[in-house]
Design brief:
With 262 residues, this protein is α/β, with parallel strands linked by helices. Helices cover 37% and strands 24% of the residues. Helix 7 links the parallel strand 5 and strand 6. The mean pLDDT is 90.
C-alpha cells in the first residue's frame, strides 16, 4: 500500500482535476479499500484541504493548486540528485536566483550545506535572490548566505511572491545563475508554468541571469503547461534525472541546451 502522503497527493490530483470525488471511485483508482479512502479524506478535511460530502469530498479553494508539502514527496530521490548536480555549478561569490518549487527548494538546501560555501567569515559566500517564501525561510538562518527576497503578492499554494512588485524589484539587479523550476518544458513551446503569474516572475528571473538553468525531473520533459516562461533558446543548461532517455533529451541538445543527467 502506498504511503499516506502519496495517497493524499493522488487524491488532491483527482480533486484538482474533477472538483469532487466519490469514495468508491477513489478506492478503485488508487486500488485501496473504501475505509482507507474515508480515513484519507477525513485527514485532508482536518487540514482544510477538502470539504467532506455524503459519499466523498469536494476540493477547497485553497487546495486548487497542489501545495508544496504534498508535491515534495514525488520523485524525491531524483530531485535530490538533480539539486546536488545543479548546486555544483555554483562558485563561491555567485549571485543566484531561485524561483519556487520542490526542485528549486532542494537546490537551495544543497547550496546551504555545501561545505566550501558554508564559511563563517564576515562576508557572505553566496547571494540568493528568490520569490519563494519557503526558500527564504530556510536560508535566512544561514550566515554565509546573503538573502534577497522580492516583493509581491503571496500565492498560498506555492509560497511564491508574484506580480509587479516582484518583477519591478528584479529589474534592478543582475544574476550569475537563475535556477528555474518548471511545470513542463518542450523544445517548441519552451519552459512553462501552470500559473501565468508565476510564469511572469520566472521570466523576469531568467531575463536577469547570465546563465539560465532549468531543473526538472524527466516527468516534465516533452510536456506542456498553460503559460510560457521563456523559449528554449534562453535556456543554457537542463539538469534532469537519469530516467530521461535520449528520446527526451536529444531534441534539447540539438537546440543548443547542455544536458546534465543526475
Amino acid at each position: 500500500m502506498a504511503a499516506p502522503q502519496d495517497r493524499w497527493s493522488a487524491l488532491l490530483d483527482l480533486l484538482t482535476r474533477d472538483g469532487r470525488i466519490e469514495v468508491e471511485a477513489a478506492a478503485e483508482a488508487l486500488r485501496v479499500s473504501t475505509a482507507t479512502i474515508r480515513r484519507d479524506l477525513d485527514e485532508l478535511a482536518r487540514q482544510q484541504m477538502v470539504t467532506r460530502t455524503h459519499g466523498g469530498a469536494v476540493i477547497n479553494a485553497i487546495a486548487y493548486d497542489l501545495p508544496l508539502r504534498y508535491k515534495a514527496a514525488r520523485n524525491a530521490p531524483e530531485k535530490e540528485r538533480i539539486a546536488n548536480a545543479a548546486a555544483g555549478l555554483v562558485k563561491a561569490g555567485a549571485v543566484v536566483g531561485l524561483n519556487g518549487g520542490t526542485t528549486t527548494t532542494a537546490v537551495a538546501r544543497a547550496l546551504a550545506v555545501r561545505p566550501d560555501l558554508s564559511t563563517e567569515g564576515a562576508v557572505p559566500s553566496l547571494t540568493v535572490v528568490t520569490n519563494a517564501l519557503n526558500i527564504a525561510n530556510e536560508l535566512v538562518v544561514r550566515r554565509h548566505v546573503k538573502l534577497v527576497l522580492t516583493g509581491g503578492v503571496a500565492r498560498p499554494a506555492s509560497y511564491e511572491l508574484t506580480g509587479p512588485l516582484a518583477t519591478g524589484m528584479l529589474a534592478q539587479i543582475t544574476l550569475d545563475h537563475a535556477f528555474i523550476g518548471v511545470d513542463a518544458i518542450d523544445v517548441r513551446r519552451g519552459a512553462m508554468a501552470q500559473d501565468e503569474g508565476e510564469a511572469g516572475i520566472n521570466w523576469a528571473l531568467a531575463g536577469r541571469a547570465q546563465q539560465v538553468i532549468v531543473v526538472a525531473d524527466s516527468s516534465k520533459l516533452g510536456r506542456r503547461a498553460f503559460a510560457r516562461i521563456c523559449p528554449v533558446e534562453d535556456v543554457h543548461i537542463l539538469v534532469t534525472d537519469k530516467a530521461a532517455g535520449p528520446e527526451l533529451t536529444e531534441p534539447f541538445a540539438a537546440a543548443g541546451v547542455k544536458i546534465i543527467r543526475a
